[in-house]
Amino acid sequence: MDHERVVRDVTARLPMVSTAVEACQWTVTALARYTPATISVLLQVHGRLRCVAATGAWQVFSTVPPKSGIVGRVYASGEGATVADVTADPDYLPVRPDVIAEMCVPVLDPAGRPIGVLDLQWSEPVELEPWRATAERLAGRLGARIVALGGPPAESRSEKLLRHATAMTSAPTNWELMAAAITAARDVSTLSAAVLLLDDRHGPRLGAPTATPGELESRIRAELAEAGPGPLGRMVARAHRHGAAYTLGETGRPPTEEYEPLLRAGVRTLVSVPLGPPDSGGLLLVADERLLRPDPTTVNLMELLAGQAWGALDRLRTLAQLREQASSDPLTGLRHTGPFGQRIRTATPGRTALLAIDVDGFKTVNDTYGHQAGDRLLVGLARALEAALRQGDELYRTGGDEFVAVLEVSRPEEAVRIAERLTEAARHTGRTISVGVALPHPGEPAEVTLRRADEALYAVKRHGRDGVRLAPT
Description:
Blueprint: H1 3-11, H2 20-31, E1 38-45, E2 48-54, E3 63-64, H3 69-77, E4 81-83, E5 101-108, E6 114-122, H4 128-148, H5 157-169, H6 174-189, E7 193-200, E8 203-206, H7 215-227, H8 229-242, E9 245-246, H9 260-265, E10 269-275, E11 282-288, H10 296-326, H11 337-344, E12 352-359, H12 362-369, H13 371-388, E13 394-397, E14 402-408, H14 412-428, E15 433-438, H15 446-462, E16 467-470
Helix pairs in contact: 1-2, 1-4, 2-4, 5-6, 5-10, 6-10, 12-13, 13-14
């Protein structure tokens, strides 16, 4: 075979193609006239090798990780591979059961950097060495043409949206989800800034920023924070009342004053998309300081993105509620024995105080007035004890009428004073409690510390109830 003619004929049309995909498709189609090989061109697109052109085959690997298979190895190393027996190469990715030989060469840019691979696979005996030089020349000319056309094909905006949707769905926390949504909005819209406003019982608030917000995004966040909940609430309400909106680059003032903070931040292009339901959702703002003209497709993609982000956020909130319910006492809402066991295992000797608390005469209430009255007593007492604790102190329900408070204190007397506040709070509900206080000794298991607190509590019971006792140190 005249390999010089192969190169000449295959590359003759390359200067006339207008896209990188057309260049690859022409190369594969023209080369197939000279060899029965299965031919494919894979280019690097967003971290993976994507097949952009191929001859007919039962199976074509649409995307390949950069180091997977012979093609991935060639791309990663930048060096071609000539494999006379594919069964002897552990990296071979089977495309057809009758393939016996494979040749793969990197498609290089003019600087010698790999941007993809040209791969040929034969199912009949072939003299490989002459094909190697031909494949390398073809790949070189193809690479030069691809670069001249702007490089490998970029992801479509729809493909980007799907990729970002996966990242949002798999985000483990609200913070990471919001950061992923902001990154997605900037990438898919091609605008430079994105901000989330989330509504809660205190009014709209700014969602978490990305790790490195741009200058415009930082200015927007500062201006919105300064504006306060009033303008933000009106902005959110407007979007939920009328739907998504966008600017078209015309000059002039915004329709209502709540958008003034955005103007002060330097925003000249804005897409505003409602997020979630009107009573508990929020708003996605995507902006740029250039005067641009977003098209309806951009707004539609932002609406889809907002829907995906809200669905993922709602899922995380539901999971958090389920975890809270699973770790909380259904009657009082206090955390119960599971979280308490985890907490006391982190107790610090001499610093973490355990307060064992028991309601005096609780059995009499149940026997005399019934369990519903007893339940109401426990709920009211739990609220009173919570209110008497300091911020950061923790209260657990560990049994029927048994509670444990966990405090961080500087000395035992501080824990005793807080325990006395609890007994006073209980008296205001019309009941009394007995409290035993213990601080862990160095090397003492938390369960032993709790047992000493219980012993101190029962000492209070024996001496008339309604009091506090500190376990011996």
